[in-house]
Amino acid sequence: MAGAALALAACANDIPAPTEQVTLSDNIIRNAETAGAVQYSPVELNMAREKLEAARREMQDENNEEARRLAEQAEVDARLAELRSRTQTTKEAVAAVQASIDTLRRELNARPTS
To answer: How far apart are CA 7 and CA 29, in angstroms?
Structure first.
């Protein structure tokens, strides 16, 4: 029984540190920030940041499987924050174009006919 526990512990330590996943998640968080997630999706952005920090702590404690899981969750949260931000930015751009079109129509309709 003790041998099995030692074998499991040895396997757990064989999992490599998820440094690439942590770097990827960090980059995606930065992309989300650039896309305006601080303004448009702060909840998801903060969740991503917190999970990434937790992943880093787990890596320091050599809990690499948990670190990978948290870093992957951080990636998903950051991607959601980025998409929500880009969606909102696009909606605002569409609304601005529509307002310009409406103004132009009013101006054309107000012109006297000759």
So the answer is: 37
